[in-house]
Design goal:
- By secondary structure, the chain is α/β, with parallel strands linked by helices.
- 33% of the residues lie in helices and 20% in strands.
Length: 360
């Protein structure tokens, strides 16, 4: 089995903000057992900033970006060294991979990263992945490691993605209210936005909205996603064994997506321009009944310049983003073909990703 495991800051951090090495040891023990059983694992781990807090003082006077750069820079060394020491107890080698969102900006970069992970797996090495917070600021940042883990799972065609935080899953109301419970299973196409809390907790950068968005996107590409409480003992092996009594939220996998669609799904942040479509084009793109490309008569206008093969965001006339796709032509050529019903599509279906919550 191929599995991506994301360990959140709230799992690896003590109440004082420092690294919880005991919990790390428990997590590694579980991963080591799975590794010995022949499972291929990608470990996406937070914790560098938490590790850095115990190593230096006076950082509180710095601005938030400088704080993160300082703490993550010194903390990443401690974090990976701690992982190495624990994995060494099981005679397992790990390989550190620090990435920024820009590392996935083109299909070529994406495939280079995929080859790197494959090489580590083929060499019986466990990839330990984290965002490079020393240089990842503003537009270069992932929303958090949830997004990075979804991208890794999709890129490597993993069978499962475990997103481990300090909560039991997605609740059907406020977790603090009496009578609320965890939604145990979410099937493709089911809208749960009414249940998702917008607040963030503890030391993590993302919140439940991010987790749900990434889980839905990843499951939509054909991967089973589980949001579970990483502070519980044996959570990883419990999820692998499929314990039906274990409380967590399972996003059920949809149909497998083509590899290029998986890249496009996580690349909307690199779109060079926006194409606004009319209602007819929107209805066609969102329909489950047929595979529709974006044709020129459905285009209302372009916002920004683009070249052939650039990524384009697709919005309706109410400014709601419904998807992203790769342009088959330059903007100048597209404008000249705006009324041509027989021209090739602006975005072909094979290079089009529609956000799951929009599908009809």
């Amino acid at each position: 089995m191929t599995i991506t495991i994301k360990i959140g800051s709230n799992v690896l951090t003590r109440s004082n903000g420092t690294l919880d090495t005991e919990r790390m040891a428990g997590i590694v023990a579980e991963i080591a057992m799975l590794h010995r059983q022949g499972h291929k694992i990608i470990l996406v781990t937070s914790g560098a900033v938490a590790a850095g807090r115990s190593m230096i003082s006076g950082y509180q006077s710095l601005d938030p970006v400088a704080q993160r750069q300082l703490l993550s820079s010194i903390g990443q060394v401690k974090l990976i060294d701690q992982y190495k020491q624990i994995f060494d107890l099981y005679n397992i080698r790990i390989g550190q991979i620090l990435v920024t969102k820009q590392d996935f900006s083109t299909r070529e970069h994406y495939l280079n990263m995929k080859n790197c992970i494959s090489t580590l797996w083929d060499s019986n090495v466990i990839p330990v992945v984290n965002e490079n917070d020393t240089v990842s600021v503003t537009s270069l940042m992932f929303t958090d490691n949830d997004e990075l883990s979804g991208l890794m799972a999709s890129m490597m065609n993993c069978e499962k993605l475990f997103i481990l935080s300090n909560i039991d899953g997605i609740f059907n109301g406020n977790p603090n209210d009496e009578g609320t419970s965890v939604i145990r299973e979410i099937k493709p196409g089911v809208n749960i936005s009414q249940y998702v809390q917008t607040t963030k907790s503890g030391f993590g950068r993302g919140g439940m909205q991010t987790k749900c968005r990434i889980a839905r996107k990843t499951a939509d590409s054909g991967i089973d996603v589980y949001i579970a409480n990483g502070t519980k003992q044996n959570v990883i092996t419990t999820l692998v064994n499929g314990d039906k009594d274990f409380v967590c939220t399972h996003f059920v996998a949809g149909e497998q997506s083509a590899a290029v669609k998986k890249w496009i799904a996580y690349s909307d942040g690199f779109a060079k321009a926006t194409v606004v479509v009319n209602q007819g084009a929107k209805n066609a793109l969102l329909s489950h009944s047929k595979a529709a490309s974006l044709l020129m008569p459905g285009v209302v206008k372009f916002l920004g310049d683009f070249k052939k093969d650039d990524l384009l965001l697709i919005c309706d006339e109410q400014n709601e983003t419904i998807g992203v796709g790769r342009a088959t032509m330059d903007k100048d050529k597209a404008e000249n073909l705006s009324e041509d019903k027989h021209s090739k599509p602006l975005i072909h279906y094979d290079y089009l990703y529609i956000y799951p919550d929009n599908l009809q």
